[in-house]
Amino acid sequence: MNFVLDASVALAWAFEDEGEDYAQAVLYALGQKEAVTCCLWPLEVANGLATAERRGRITAGDAGRFARLVLALPIVMEPLDRRRVLEVTRPLARRTGLSVYDAHYLELAARLGVPLATLDRDLVAAAEAEGVEAFPR
C-alpha cells in the first residue's frame, strides 16, 4: 500500500468542481500505486453518490458508471478492528477534534507509515500535527 485514500478524494473524481487537480493527481497515481482505505470508505462514497443523485448533481447512470470505475481501481480495504477503533482511534479523534470516521483514516496512515490523500482541510491539519505525511499537492 502506497497511500491511504479518503472518500473526499474519490468523490471529487465524480464531480469536476471539487478539488480537480489534486484529485486527478491521486487518480493518476493509482496507475502505479495501490491505495488502502478503511471499511467505511465504500459507505461514504456510496452515500455521496446517493446524495448527489437526490440533489440532481449526477444521474443514476453516471453514478453507476462511476461506481464501476472505482471498483476497478487498486484500492484495498483494511478490515475493521473494533479494539483499535475504541482504544486508538477514539482517543485520536478526541485529541485532534476530528470525527472518529476521519480519525480512522488518519490512524490508518500513521500505522502504515504512508501518506494520506484527502481534500478535508481539518484532516490535513490534524495529519500535519500528528506527523503524518499528506499525499503531495
Short description:
This protein has 137 residues and is of the alpha/beta class. The protein is built from seven helices and four strands, in the order βααβααβααβα.
Describe the protein.
The protein is built from seven helices and four strands. The chain starts with a strand and ends in an 8-residue tail after the last helix. By secondary structure, it is of the alpha/beta class. It has a four-stranded parallel β-sheet with strand order 3-2-1-4, with helices on both faces. The chain is 60% helix and 9% strand. 32% of the residues are buried. The protein has a single domain (3-129), classed as 5'-nuclease (Rossmann fold, 3-Layer(aba) Sandwich). The protein has helices at 7-14, 20-29, 41-54, 60-72, 82-96, 100-112, 121-129, and strands spanning 3-5, 35-38, 75-78, 116-117. Helix 5 crosses helix 6 (100-112). The radius of gyration is 15 Å and the shape is globular.
Most strands sheet? 4 strands, parallel
Please tell me what the overall shape is: globular
Cα-atom radius of gyration: 15 Å
Q: How many domains, as an integer?
A: 1
What is the arithmetic mean of pLDDT? 94
How do the strands line up in the largest sheet?
A: 3-2-1-4
CATH class: Alpha Beta
Per CATH, the architecture is 3-Layer(aba) Sandwich
Order of helices and strands: EHHEHHEHHEH
Tell me the name of the CATH homologous superfamily: 5'-nuclease
**Roughly how much helix do the residues carry, as a percent range?**
55-70%
Distance linking N and C termini = 19 Å
Count of extended strands: 4
CATH-defined topology: Rossmann fold
* Unreliable stretches: none
